[in-house]
Design goal:
homodimer, alpha+beta, Glutaredoxin, Glutathione S-transferase Yfyf (Class Pi), Chain A, domain 2, 2 domains, globular
């Protein structure tokens, strides 16, 4: 299998965590978002939507959308399971997944921030206020959903943790005060990061990572 | 069961379609978005995130996030199934679901449009250009994924159709030229709307619908 992604892509980061948790070997192919490679013909043949990540299966077929990819991985490689067996519990986990995937990430990714700047003339302060608004709304919702420890739903890692961590990583990168505002979210983030699977998936540990001085 | 929603909410519309397809009786409770009822204490007790829809189960527990609700309905009321059995096919359907739920809807809902106007001073033309940009990106991606007829994945309705229809309805409401730009999406929209389940779920057929003159 090949994962088309980028070290700093939050959606690719989710898939990397899932692959690591499952112990699946997967070649990483860099699609450099800063160079616009996601819109180049070579990548559009992989994913016509021009979005990363995409997964190339061993039989040459492709899958797109990180959430669909992770659910596919979970059904094809069921150990360890990323969702609970009970239907209600599963829906609770997925509700957290969609809080990140539908309420925060779509609004705060690089494509949208570029649009705000170029088309609506948003300055730095306005862009930061925009990001903060959706971080606050989404993380507050997650905070209200977390009733267990060390992970979102107790002592087993679920898809909720896989989605929380990359979003928290992004928020911290933009100096969002996650620890004060949403202490349970921060505690889950820290607990996950003690696990090798989450450490190996971190952006700065990817082969295409660029040092901070860049 | 009770569905907390609003006639014009695209996310509630999805759940209504799923309920109708499954033949499930469900009481509808209106949360009037124009009056800000989603932020009132009464509703925050149902869903602390202040977002609709939410589903109240017969045992008094609540579920939020339309995608999680529909997946729960599909596991508790498996007939007719909303996802294919084959893992790859299922991932393809979910990829379309997430294209709507993560690439279009989060950007073009009323809360975001209000923010653009009040915080970034976007005028009508800029707001329309914003909506058009994400309609175009998302529907183009769906168009590339549809290879069958009459529905997205052939002769069985799937979750992809349940998500496509409310988004297409919204786009048409804003005079987006769906038929010319994405003819396959438009054909699926029209085919779905010949089915009673989709007709019954349409915004204008809800008890809380307000006539166009409003």
């Amino acid at each position: 299998m090949k994962l088309y992604g980028y070290w700093r892509s939050s959606a690719a980061y989710r898939v990397r965590i899932a692959l690591q948790l499952k112990g699946i070997d997967c070649q990483q192919v860099t699609v450099n978002l800063l160079k616009g490679e996601q819109g180049a013909a070579a990548y559009l043949a992989v994913n016509p939507a021009g979005l990363i990540p995409a997964l190339e299966l061993d039989d040459g077929r492709y899958l797109s959308q990180s959430t669909a990819i992770i659910q596919w991985l979970d059904s094809e490689h069921p150990q360890p399971p990323l969702l609970p067996d009970d239907a209600f519990d599963r829906a609770q986990v997925l509700s957290c997944v969609y809080t990140v995937a539908c309420e925060i990430h779509p609004l705060n990714n690089i494509g949208i921030l570029n649009y705000l700047k170029s088309e609506l003339g948003a300055d730095k302060a306005q862009t930061l206020a925009w990001m903060t608004a959706w971080f606050k709304r989404g993380f507050a919702s997650l905070e209200a959903s977390i009733s267990a420890a060390p992970y979102c739903f107790g002592d087993r890692v679920t898809m909720a943790d896989i989605f929380l961590v990359p979003m928290a990583y992004n928020a911290l990168r933009f100096d969002y005060d996650l620890g004060s505002l949403h202490p349970k979210v921060m505690a889950v983030y820290e607990a996950c990061n003690t696990l090798p699977a989450f450490g190996d998936a971190r952006p700065e540990n990817q082969p295409d990572a660029v040092p901070p001085s860049y």
